[in-house]
């Protein structure tokens, strides 16, 4: 047999044979407690590092959110603001504005902007108490301008935010401003300065409190109307604004970030009357029916598009508007002469509803503007037409008139025009049942125009021409005077004018191919506006000149002869949308290129001829006098008061 395995040696400590280990060491084994404590410390260190990382990331995220909220004015301006306006920087707006395809001479505008305009050329002067050269520095350096109008216990308070993201530019602007400022307060860590008032400002008494100025990175804030509005914005910059403007209904329609080709504004209807005389707010029906205006003005392919959306408070009223003002194409605009001073086209599927809504809108506008007495005859006439139409028109006739209704102004006949004739207007309507419409008009017109009128018709080459003539009383009975109305139906088109001569001129214009459809002027004006709308208006330069506005006269002088202004009105849900191809880009370019005489013309409206002549004579001798600086606050009222003492020379 083989030898057995040798027995293990005895333990030197106990003298016993050791047993092989069959399990983990006991808790009392040497060294295991140290390992456990090391593992626990490692876990705690990991937890601490994780907590530190989370808090650090949260802090960085909060700091980023705080900084972004501080540069987003819609988070700082309260929801109660009645006006919020943002514009791109003037230096970025220059090229797109001058590139509009509507200017008669873009090169002359660019030269005026750099050399002859008042803003670029005036050696001295001030803008709201700030010297003109400092204002120029601000306009050149700014990355954007924003305006807010906040209601306070003491009236509306305007705030101007000049955005200066570049640190060096901000320091340079503040260095120019500091010599003009006096420190008057500190609020939540911000130093509040006031523009030092000139003797002229104290004389006018307009600025009871001087404009406040605060450097609130990245803005330099100018505030008028006391400290209440400014303090609220500064508080929001530090602690946030719970009721911020960005949450107001309609704000999302303004689009996202600032764009170099877009002007944005959110307007409360009450802001339209914020600067009414003596602070009175007219109780207008239109302003009470609307909640807010969302306004955007942007450039598209060398053209401008202004869009104003008005939110209707009452959903039932909004439904009535949508039914009375459907969106349809407007083809009758193409029939107007290309030099017509104005064309208005309205789409209607229910003529009586459209007539009723037009009367209500006109009555609301008259109440808002204080023109109720002046427009009373027109409103009464519309009410009479509506009543007679309801009584005497059945639904068959109403449907025969459904579609598009256009009214256009005829241009003045040229000197030596062989066609002769007169100006006036023409009403056009597409009709589906000409015979029914003709019979109905013959029956309805006597009730619309009233007594003392004679009616008749004459058969010509283009069918019957109907006449409505005033029958004037005379000793021998009634003698027929000149035309009061003339109308005819041809090829499904109703034509109505104040006289047969106007109808004939309209026919000649159409045959001569000088209409908007032939020249394409109207389609060019409407190119970037809605293709279908409830109403369309096309306005020629002669109409703008006739409005007797210095600013409009300056605008038409710079526009090309073939330019036409266009406006459309649309409905959708609770919104009324007004679109136009003329807006702040056009008007702003005109103002920026205006010389001193032109700026004086539109900043001193309402002066008598004698007063204006006296002011011009004074400024010719003392051009640097304060009343001769076009943008000085309070000068119009002081000049008007001085002119009250002028007496005619013997």
Please outline the major beta sheet.
Answer: 20 strands, antiparallel
What is the 3D form?
globular
Determine the N-to-C terminus distance.
163 Å
Can you give the mean pLDDT?
A: 79
Structural class: alpha+beta
Oligomer: single chain
- How much of the polypeptide forms β-strand, as a percent range? 15-25%
User: Portion of residues in helices?
Assistant: 40-55%
Poorly predicted spans: 13-17, 62-67, 277-281
Q: How many helices in DSSP terms?
A: 24
Cα-atom Rg, whole angstroms? 37 Å
Give a count of the beta strands, DSSP E runs of length 2 or more: 22
Structure overview:
The protein is built from 24 helices and 22 strands. Helix content is 40%, strand content 24%. Helix 11 (315-324) packs across helix 12 and helix 20 packs across helix 21. The chain has 650 residues and is an alpha+beta fold. The longest helix has 40 residues, at 32-71. It has a 20-stranded antiparallel sheet, sandwiched between helices. Strands 2-3 form a two-stranded antiparallel sheet. The radius of gyration is 37 Å and the shape is globular. Residues 13-17, 62-67 and 277-281 have low confidence and may be disordered. It starts with 31 loop residues before the first helix and ends in a 7-residue tail after the last helix.
């Amino acid at each position: 047999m083989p030898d057995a395995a040798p027995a293990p040696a005895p333990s030197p400590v106990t003298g016993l044979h050791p047993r092989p280990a069959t399990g983990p060491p006991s808790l009392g084994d040497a060294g295991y407690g140290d390992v456990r404590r090391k593992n626990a410390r490692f876990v705690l260190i990991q937890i601490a590092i994780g907590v530190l990382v989370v808090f650090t990331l949260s802090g960085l995220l909060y700091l980023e959110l705080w900084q972004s909220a501080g540069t987003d004015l819609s988070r700082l301006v309260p929801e109660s603001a009645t006006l919020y306006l943002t514009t791109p920087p003037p230096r970025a707006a220059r090229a797109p504005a001058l590139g509009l395809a509507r200017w008669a001479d873009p090169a002359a505008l660019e030269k005026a902007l750099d050399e002859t305009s008042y803003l670029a050329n005036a050696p001295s002067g001030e803008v709201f108490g700030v010297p003109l050269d400092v204002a120029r520095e601000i306009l050149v350096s700014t990355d954007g301008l924003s305006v807010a109008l906040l209601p306070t216990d003491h009236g509306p308070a305007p705030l101007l935010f000049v955005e200066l993201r570049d640190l060096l530019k901000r320091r340079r602007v503040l260095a120019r401003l500091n010599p003009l400022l006096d420190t008057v307060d500190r609020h939540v860590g911000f130093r509040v300065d006031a523009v030092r008032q000139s003797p002229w400002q104290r004389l006018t008494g307009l600025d009871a409190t001087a404009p406040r100025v605060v450097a609130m990175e990245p803005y330099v804030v100018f505030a008028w109307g006391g400290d209440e509005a400014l303090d609220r914005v500064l508080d929001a910059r530090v602690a946030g604004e719970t009721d911020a403007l960005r949450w107001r209904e309609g704000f999302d329609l303004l689009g996202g970030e600032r764009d170099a080709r877009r002007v944005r504004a959110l307007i409360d209807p009450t802001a339209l009357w914020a600067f009414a005389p003596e602070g009175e707010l007219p109780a207008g029906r239109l302003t009470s029916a609307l909640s807010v205006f969302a306004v955007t003005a942007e450039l598209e392919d060398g053209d401008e598009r202004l869009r104003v959306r008005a939110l209707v408070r009452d959903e039932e009223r909004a439904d009535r508007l949508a039914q009375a003002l459907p969106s349809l194409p407007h083809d009758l605009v193409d029939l107007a002469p290309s030099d017509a001073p104005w064309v208005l086209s309205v789409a209607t599927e229910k003529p009586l509803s459209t007539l009723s809504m037009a009367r209500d809108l006109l009555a609301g506008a008259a109440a808002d503007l204080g023109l109720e007495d002046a427009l009373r005859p027109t409103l009464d006439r519309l009410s009479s037409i509506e009543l007679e139409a309801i009584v005497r028109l059945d639904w068959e006739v109403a449907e025969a008139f459904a579609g598009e209704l256009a009214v256009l102004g005829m241009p003045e006949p040229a000197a030596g025009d062989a066609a002769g004739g007169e100006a006036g207007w023409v009403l056009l309507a597409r009709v589906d049942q000409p015979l029914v419409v003709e019979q109905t008009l013959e029956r309805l017109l006597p009730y619309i125009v009233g007594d003392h009128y004679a009616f008749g018709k004459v058969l010509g080459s283009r069918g019957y021409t109907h006449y409505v003539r005033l029958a004037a009383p005379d000793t021998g009975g009634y003698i027929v005077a000149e035309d009061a109305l003339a109308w005819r139906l041809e090829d499904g088109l109703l034509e109505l004018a104040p006289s047969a001569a106007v109808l004939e001129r309209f026919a000649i214009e159409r045959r001569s191919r000088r209409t908007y459809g032939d020249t394409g002027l109207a389609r060019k004006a409407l190119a970037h506006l809605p293709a279908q709308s409830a109403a369309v208006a096309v306005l020629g330069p002669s109409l703008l000149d006739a409005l007797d506005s210095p600013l409009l006269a300056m605008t038409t002088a710079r526009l090309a002869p073939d330019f036409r202004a266009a406006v459309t009105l649309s409905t959708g849900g609770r919104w009324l949308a007004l679109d136009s191809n003329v807006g702040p880009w056009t008007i702003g370019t005109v103002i920026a290129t205006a010389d001193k005489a032109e700026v004086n013309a539109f900043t001193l409206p309402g002066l008598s001829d004698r007063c204006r002549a006296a002011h011009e004579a004074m400024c010719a001798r003392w051009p640097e006098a304060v009343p001769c600086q076009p943008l000085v606050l309070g000068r119009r009222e002081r000049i008007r008061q001085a002119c009250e003492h002028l007496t005619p020379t013997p």
